[in-house]
Predict the structure of L-fuconate dehydratase.
Amino acid sequence: MNPDPDYSAAYVVLHTDEGMEGHGFCFTIGRGNEVCVAAIEAYAPLVEGTDLDLGDLGGFARRLLHDSQLRWLGPEKGAVHMAAAAIINAAFDLAGKIAGKPVWRLLAEMTPEQIVDLADWRYLTDALTPDRALDLLREAVPGRAARTADLLERGYPAYTTTPGWLGYTDDKLGRLAREAVADGFTQIKLKVGADLDDDVRRLRLAREAVGPDVRIAVDANQRWDVAPAIEWMEALKPFDPYWIEEPTSPDDVLGHAAIRRGVSPVKVATGEHIANRVIVKQMLQAEALDVLQIDACRVAGVTENVAILLLAAAFGVPVCPHAGGVGLCEAVQHLSMFDYVAVSGSTENRVIEYVDHLHEHFEDPVRMSRGHYSAPAAPGMSTQMKAASLAAYAHPHGEVWRS
Amino acid sequence: MNPDPDYSAAYVVLHTDEGMEGHGFCFTIGRGNEVCVAAIEAYAPLVEGTDLDLGDLGGFARRLLHDSQLRWLGPEKGAVHMAAAAIINAAFDLAGKIAGKPVWRLLAEMTPEQIVDLADWRYLTDALTPDRALDLLREAVPGRAARTADLLERGYPAYTTTPGWLGYTDDKLGRLAREAVADGFTQIKLKVGADLDDDVRRLRLAREAVGPDVRIAVDANQRWDVAPAIEWMEALKPFDPYWIEEPTSPDDVLGHAAIRRGVSPVKVATGEHIANRVIVKQMLQAEALDVLQIDACRVAGVTENVAILLLAAAFGVPVCPHAGGVGLCEAVQHLSMFDYVAVSGSTENRVIEYVDHLHEHFEDPVRMSRGHYSAPAAPGMSTQMKAASLAAYAHPHGEVWRS
């Protein structure tokens, strides 16, 4: 489905009068990045020159998202929503830097009332009310300190997609799968959906490489309709796939629910392309998925993801963020760590995706240890790219583009 | 929800080597129009300089929509999808002009196979297969001639939103409602959702003005969550509202289904902000609405609307297009007329919205007669604006902007 990704990002820097900076971005795969840039520029008049109240970041996000003229281009989906994500995440990066805290900690040290106020509750109350969310958050308060200590000591579990890209030779797949296990990962992921015979061979090979105890997820990147998804997965079941990711359209709540019934006991995972919290709500209401894969930069950044984490906790569905892309590993780790400390209170069956590329461009790249993300300590959201990378890759005048 | 619309459009002209032109646009309400322009420009390399095969307009549309890098910004939603609508509708305007036919007739004279080939069937087959769609279309073939004659004689039924905007005085509301009935309309529509006491008073007044036999639809423009929608409508029931339009988020299939159960016998209508055919499919599967309101320029133009009309016919749900905006009346009439002649074969409980503004800017404006749209006779999709209007309103150098 994504044959020629040219990893790109529409990048935002917020500047304060005091010289502080907040960095955020949304991730694209090439052409169209300029559409997100245009959307960010359309929001600029709502941001530039305004007072940013760090105690009301929810209000800041709602002012952007409720702008009626820009909302018309969604509502709350597509380019304008990705643009809002870039700006809202930049505001949280800034808030973390001003507070001197990584964003996971900034969030996890808020009161339940402050956390609930970050979310936009419109369209959610038939599934979760602010009052019920407050109850959930209050129940988690007593355990925050112990979980923070545990997080700082152990990190947050990860899985790796490195072995599983389409187009790798069988030898390379087997070698990378064995390396992943040696590196401490307990789950890997393979792309599937191009050719069934190939998938059967690759999955057999991966299973042989990792043994029976390592989970192997498979990812179809939205390739199938409902019936083909169920048929294809039936052929892969002998190799015990753990979850099937994005079997069909990310908009198709009822389709995912039908697929989930059809592929059991294989789990269904989706979320990287879910447009907003309203689709997430329905995925949960319809029991359409076993694993929710949030994205840091497709829904409206930290604030909408707070609403989504609360929904997932209320429905008892584990969140395993989508990562990779440009800087998504850096961004999503803050969301999962906040979730562990202050929302769901658990890492059981929860893993953050890990892909080993582009980290060298970030000021505070993710740090992996024995298959876990180490908790970031630097202030901010880890979303700031190095000045040299920004200069070299800036389109169209950076040296990479000129050469 | 839309307090300050500044009616705008991102406008496309396709030129052939022979000097023919196809015109299309997507409608916005002001800021953000430039985001749609950027998205249209992002598609331009896929269009400019290519051969447009008028016998394969479905293939043309799929080439745009399946472009993996631009699809990433949706998929199939938001600014990139609105941009695709503008381009695809321009291609149909061009095809109609080359064929010397209005687009409703161009479509209605296609074979069932040609019509089915216009649609993108991905993600639809759990609800409707191309074979079943072919059956539907073939059943309609014998009646096409009689229905075309009927359409040319009577036109297509309409309803009017003119009396019902928020902010009108009670006197103006009553006067416009009476005028609408005198003009032959059998349905009017009122905006609701700002203030319940006001809505009760306005709906009582409108009911007194039009009498018991004229349908009064009400439109909440996405304002409510599920429970408030049901409560609000309970208070309006004494005045026999015909449908409640957009009670909540256009993404909320399950929410609409719950509201529909809660407000019966009032009907539920939605669609102007539905992102694509996948959401439409689910609305039908979940029995979430009684009336489907297609938009010409939010889903991907004629081709995706053909898929949606086929879905609606298969589920037996009447289509009543959203119109108004900029040129939507001009565009959607072709879709409803095609639906009547070649798809559903019925105008029962079907009405096209009519709003009496901006028609003066179009080369071939809609013509109303006794509450009906007269069938367009001019070649094309009626989407071409007058050259003088395009010049005067072009942003930022047109004379209207300069003054």
Observations:
- The first strand of chain A starts at residue 8 and ends at 15.
- Residues 144-388 of chain A form a domain with the TIM Barrel fold (CATH 3.20.20.120).
- The radius of gyration of chain A is 20 Å.
